[in-house]
């Protein structure tokens, strides 16, 4: 017990010290970011549409810029079945597109102990936060797990894609980052301007305008490895500080850790290309289009005529939360006619994965 209390105190002291350190060393750094193609004479960032397209490749010869895909997870059935499906499709995309920018893969397991799937999925075992520090918000283990992984593992690739278990790769992902900028998906519910008063506790005015904080979380994000090594400790410390602050905890709720990453990225001057076509989220996004990822965070409910009944359990449904304590069965029923392409593709891809993963449900 004494060792645990000592470690608890050390983590808190380290967090406070590092936040202060980051503020001091970064005080003179300009965080104003220019998007690719902007000149010094271009208008201020507030006049630029934050959803921008990737710069067009001008050279026919493309140099591969490999990125390492990292997914944080617990050992719950809920996280595990999603991780197995995600890794199946990661392998399929690499196999079918051997010249893509996709490099290695790591599941960062933040439970402190190995599980039964270490041989199936490349895994790094990270220690969880000491008891009580996450205050029941298990997501706080994510930045702490990334800190440990980045410090302890020799990662060959120069870039990192932070992904999640409930991501399915529908096509190979290119390295979307450019010119020192990360590449990230913009979330409509991350609103730095709306919460400027709260965010100024963690991103003081001398750091620049609140618009330096991008409307992103940590995933999906492709970012340089060197940049992430700087961002991750700050991400962890800001997450812990926000959770301890009643005003921030109430304002940000279940997306608190996402705000913390956005703050940490801005703190270190790492801007992001906001790439709306990075992923889709059924049932609201109905077509695959040019997207690379299906993020199945929302439940999909429909009647037998193919009409969405969101907010009401449908006659046909797929919701990952239906399988929080049990493995989803193989060969899930397909949606009725009229259901959008995105939902049909999602269920078909889950079915293909479960049909081909050995010992499914064991």
TrEMBL record:
Q: Where in the cell is it found?
A: Membrane
Mind telling me which residue stretches traverse the membrane in this protein? 6-25
UniProt KW keywords: Glycosyltransferase, Membrane, Transferase, Transmembrane, Transmembrane helix
What Enzyme Commission number(s) appear in the record?
Answer: 2.4.2.58
Primary location: membrane
An MF annotation (GO) of this entry: hydroxyproline O-arabinosyltransferase activity
Q: What PANTHER family does the entry give?
A: HYDROXYPROLINE O-ARABINOSYLTRANSFERASE 1 (PTHR31485:SF3), PEPTIDYL SERINE ALPHA-GALACTOSYLTRANSFERASE (PTHR31485)
- Name the record gives this protein: Hydroxyproline O-arabinosyltransferase 1
Give the GO cellular component terms, alphabetically. Answer: membrane
Q: Which residues form the Hydroxyproline O-arabinosyltransferase-like domain?
A: 67-360
Q: Topology versus the membrane, per the UniProt entry?
A: Single-pass membrane protein
